[in-house]
Amino acid sequence: MNLRASLSLLVLLLGLSQAIPENEIEDNFLPEEEETVDMTARILDSNKRYSEVLVEGDLVVPKTRTAVNCWNNHCLWKKSSNGLVEVPYTLSSDFSYYEKMKLEYALATFHRKTCVRFVPRSSQNDYVSIENRNGCFSSLGRSGGKQVVSLNKYGCLHNGIIQHELSHALGFYHEQTRSDRDQYVRINWEYISPSVAYNFYVQNTNNLDTPYDYSSVMHYGRTAFSNQYGKETITPIPDESVQIGQSQGLSDIDILRINKLYDCNM
């Protein structure tokens, strides 16, 4: 290797060792185009390799609770006197520089548009550990102690999936299982195997006086858990042509809900 090539490599390595400031992430780091990413399929396919039971496809039942629930705000992250909701987190060293930048890009949306701040953990007891495990999954809300948000680097590192799992960690269910969903979607039980039907049970959710959001990053796609290829398990009503589910990231209503749940002054 000649001297010029060696110097170029050194400059590149030094550049990669420098973290991009958060206020520059939006301008200097853009994720790849993701219109064709089927978020639901990616999540469910990735989680086939996970050995424990996941509710609704990607929700872990915490050992500190007997069921997946988030009642009476007992699992929310605490708000500081400065009006910010700090969620301490650690990030696995398994992720490459580029993968870490994708994660930082996803976190930056919460920081710009809500009062939630994902902050590097120092000594906090309750924190989120973002890890490269077998699948895309999270527990619901603050479960106490270390709680894993799994984002497998080969299937889960898409902007919408990252924000989907982090929204679970903030306390949000899937849109298609919210308490009033039967007014907005039809569940086609004939295309759902009895062994996975529990994934479609309605939850006792706090809808925060916000409308049902077909475009929520928390909404699964039409064929989620289908036992027949291409057959819809979720159909919007009354207009069946409405698009449901997307992988781009938090919708306007997703952002509104975060701000309402955590009483953000935005």
Description:
The structure is a single chain. This protein has 266 residues and is α/β, with parallel strands linked by helices. The chain is built from 6 helices and 9 strands. The chain has helices spanning 3-16, 22-28, 39-46, 97-113, 159-170, 252-261; strands spanning 54-55, 59-60, 85-91, 116-120, 127-131, 136-139, 146-151, 185-187, 234-236. The longest helix is centred in the middle third of the chain and has 17 residues, at 97-113. The chain is globular.
- Main sheet characteristics: 7 strands, mixed
Radius of gyration: 19 Å
Beta-strand content:
5-15%
CATH homologous superfamily classification of the domain at 35-173 and 252-262: Collagenase (Catalytic Domain)
Low-pLDDT parts are: 5-20, 22-30
User: SSE order, as H and E?
Assistant: HHHEEEHEEEEHEEH
Helix content: 25-40%
Name of the top-level CATH class of the domain at 35-173 and 252-262: Alpha Beta
Summing up helix and strand content along with how strands pair, one would put the structural category as: alpha/beta
Strand elements, count: 9
Total helical segments: 6
Distance between the termini: 54 Å
The overall average pLDDT, rounded, is 88
In CATH, the architecture of the domain at 35-173 and 252-262 is: 3-Layer(aba) Sandwich
Tell me, briefly, the overall form: globular
